[in-house]
Amino acid sequence: MSSLRLVLHEFRFEQKVFWRNPASVFFTAMLPVIFLVIFATIFGGSEVQGMAVDTTTYYIPAIITLAVVSAALVSLSVNVVIDREAGLLKRGRGTPLPAWVFIAGRVGNSMIISLVMLILIAVIGRIFYSVPFPWEHLPALLVALLVGAASFCCMGLALSAAIPTRESASPITNLISLPLYFLSGVFIPEGEIPSGVLTVAGFLPVRPFFQAFLACWDPTTVGAGFEWGHLAVVAAWGLAGLLLAVRWFRWTPRA
Q: For the chain, what is the HEC assignment?
């Protein structure tokens, strides 16, 4: 079997496992939709302080950011830890399946889920909240998604190596991701967050990723909407995650 067919086989397997797991579907796909409805209902109808952006429009790229980070970082790292501690990764290493095919299947699964969530949130925003889709910035939007999803997958694989047990996987990933959402303006409009906090968050991965998406929906954006500076920060975090994963990723449970 060719390498491409092996990757596609592994990808299809991961897709089936994900969509047949109610908990994964709820926390990765449904929870961002619930957050969008709550935030748009409570805060919608006003303008973000200091920005010429409607609050509902603001929350579309914010919730897409949440969904991508959830699929590529949180869900990936948690599932890898669960499978590792159950001995599934060790058994997989005992088969002729190349390690890179296994990783490619997992990463491809997370990236497709991220794309599905981008489309789902954008469609909900268009139909229910009359937020136009930024067709003029579509190339910038896809580049931001590709760079962000790939980078957060690398960070998720690196994070899985640091999580000791399956019981601690969800608490540790939430402990890392939830504060980043608040500091980065994903949950709270950035006009209400102190500038010093936003400056610090700009050196972390979630804030620049969100800014790359926000520029696509911001009606004041001039040009094609590519935020290369912000994406460079995200890519740097992804590269660091990749190097850490190459060095520390484990296939066997902790003794």
A: CCHHHHHHHHHHHHHHHHHCCHHHHHHHHHHHHHHHHHHHHHHCCCECCCCCCEHHHHHHHHHHHHHHHHHHHHHHHHHHHHHHHCCHHHHHHCCCCCHHHHHHHHHHHHHHHHHHHHHHHHHHHHHHHCCCCCHHHHHHHHHHHHHHHHHHHHHHHHHHHHCCCCCCHHHHHHHHHHHHHHHCCCCCCHHHCCHHHHHHHCCCCHHHHHHHHHHHHCCCCCCCCCCHHHHHHHHHHHHHHHHHHHHHCCCCCCC
Residue type (1 letter), 114: S
- CA distances 177 to 49, 82, 184, 194, 245, Å, are 25, 19, 10, 20, 18
pTM over 0.85: yes
CA nearest 102: which of 171, 147, 19, 160?
Answer: 160
- Apex CA 9: angle with CA 97 and CA 161, to 5°? 55
Query: Could you read off the pLDDT of 26-58 as tens digits, one per residue?
Result: 888 899 999 999 998 888 778 888 888 899 999
Q: Evaluate if residue 130 carries a pLDDT over 80.
A: yes
Structure tokens at 215: 């520029």
